Each structure stands twice: as C-alpha cells, then as structure tokens.
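tmp note - Peptidyl-prolyl cis-trans isomerase
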Amino acid sequence: MRLRPVLALVGLSVLALSGCAGDADTGTTPSPTESSSTAAASGACTYAPGAAPAKPVDAPPAEPTATGDVPVTIATSAGDIGITLDADGTPCTVGSFLSLADQGYFDDTECHRLTTEGIFVLQCGDPSASGRGGPGYSFPDELDGTETYPAGTLAMANAGPNTNGSQFFLVYEDTQLPPSYTVFGQMDEAGLAVVQEIAAKGATGGAPDGAPAETVTISGVTQG
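out:
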C-alpha cells in the first residue's frame, strides 16, 4: 500500500493516500463515495484472498467479535501511541486490525512513509516497508461519505474502493482528503504527540514525502 499522487482538493495539490491490495496499484485516485456501504451490513465480513502476504498470517474471522471502543497501544521505537478503535462503526476493519495484531503481523515492522506537505500522515502496516506489502487478503471499505481527517485520526490506506489490507495511516495535522479512507480509530493526546515528534524530524533527505528521517519501528500492537 502506498501514498499515491496526485489529488487536487480545494485548489490544493496533495498526495492521495493509497495502498496496494495484491498487485493493484494503478496510479488512480479512488472516488470519494464510490463504495460507501458498511462492509458488515450483512452481518459478516468478507476477506477476499489476494497476492502472497508480506508476512504469513491467517485471515480474520468473518463474524466480528469486538464491540464498542477498543483501546490499543502501538509500541514504537519513538514511543507508545495510544488509540481507541471504533468497533461498532467499523467492525470489519477493527476485526482485521486486531487479528493482525494478535498474530504479530505488525511486530518489528517499519513505518515506511511520512508526508510533510499537502497531507500530514505517517503510514505503517507493511512488513516489507516497500509500500506494496499486504496481508494476503483485502476487504471492503466502511464509509458513510462524511469522513474527515483531523489530527489524531487513524484510517486505512487503500488502492481504490474496497481494497483495504494491512496498511494504515496516522494523521498528525488536520488533513483534507475525500471520504475514501475508512476511519477506524483516534489517537490519544500523548500518542498524537509521539507522531508529531516523528514528523518534526522530517522525511529522509528533507523530502516532503518519503521514509521518516529517523527510522520508526513498531515492536507490537496490544489491546488495553
């Protein structure tokens, strides 16, 4: 999954957040509300097999198990990032994230991309750190068309409608994006401060878009 250019919003050219599900990476920008139905509307989640996973992992159960607000901590080399997941609003996304976390999928992985102009995010969740890795399955968006991306937002990266995998982004400054990216959690104040400190150090070589200048490694994701 990668951040993919280019998206024009309100007269401002920014980078669109995108991800790679399997080999799909067309360079196009997903339509804001092309797939705005809830993935679990039928009561079950669909995780479709795709390309080989970046790290061996089983698909999540079809029936969501988590409910309500679910606290998790992303432990990183830069500090802990506390997050509250919205299991009621985005059951399939949260179910996938928790399943991957429980299986150690995120353990010892690098956050591979930081953007410091146009959009302000740290992107993680790819064990290959290439921007193309995924869990070997994809699942539908959970959108209602009203999504916004203020500082503190946790959302899924994608390669177009219904191509979610394992990559996610952490918004550290208010960012304008179309409602094309499932919002499934919010950072706490201390966690947001950690991401802001990472962003303050910039991307490699001073570029506005690239790997963080100081490597950020996730050691694990735990509930509670």
